[in-house]
């Protein structure tokens, strides 16, 4: 067990292959270069850690730890464990338990009283593992792209809401303008 280094970028992409595919971004950089940059950024943060489990010189698991407030209305902090993943062929060997143990040890070092851990809703094994360790379900975390959320939200801001300085038009106005343009186009044809 050790902190990840930028040289672990390729291995981390392999560990998180499924997650990486679902959240790919187009930064213009190769994925390994972007991952290496992210690992270096995390290493420089005093309230973040990226742990890797290594077996026979191969990275077989990883977890991201962040020290942050327990909630917006609490002064005490918690260690948030996310993206804990063990490669399938290395599961049931105590590697996940070692990653959680490392999170608990770091929490103790930082005088932090709580550990919060996230597991994929689709991973029955991960959720059972967390429950066996005594981690209770306290929330459901959902994710979406900004674009897909924008498409589902009301187009008119609620009364009294701050609106950006950009030209804000409702979908109804856009559709009406397009219909008018089509009618004008069809009259000229």
From TrEMBL:
Keywords: Acyltransferase, Transferase. The keyword Transcription regulation does not apply. The keyword Acyltransferase applies. Residues 1-156 form the N-acetyltransferase domain. CDD domains: NAT_SF. It comes from the Bacteria. InterPro entries: Acyl_CoA_acyltransferase, Bact_Acetyltransf, GNAT_dom. PANTHER family: AMINOALKYLPHOSPHONATE N-ACETYLTRANSFERASE-RELATED-RELATED (PTHR43877). This is GNAT family N-acetyltransferase. It comes from Nocardioides jiangsuensis.
């Amino acid at each position: 067990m050790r902190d990840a280094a930028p040289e672990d970028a390729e291995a981390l992409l392999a560990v998180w292959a499924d997650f990486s595919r679902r959240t790919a971004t187009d930064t213009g950089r190769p994925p390994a270069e972007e991952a290496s940059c992210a690992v270096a950024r995390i290493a420089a943060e005093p309230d973040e850690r990226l742990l890797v489990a290594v077996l026979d010189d191969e990275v077989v698991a990883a977890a991201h730890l962040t020290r942050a407030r327990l909630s917006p209305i609490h002064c005490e902090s918690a260690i948030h464990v996310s993206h804990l993943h063990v490669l399938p062929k290395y599961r049931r060997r105590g590697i996940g338990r070692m990653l959680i143990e490392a999170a608990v040890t770091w929490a103790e070092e930082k005088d932090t009283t709580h550990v919060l851990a996230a597991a994929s809703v689709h991973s029955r094994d991960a959720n059972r593992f967390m429950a066996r360790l005594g981690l209770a379900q306290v929330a459901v975390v959902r994710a979406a792209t900004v674009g897909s959320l924008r498409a589902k939200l009301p187009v008119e801001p609620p009364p009294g809401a701050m609106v950006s300085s950009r030209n804000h038009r409702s979908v109804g106005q856009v559709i009406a303008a397009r219909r008018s343009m089509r009618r004008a186009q069809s009259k000229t044809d």
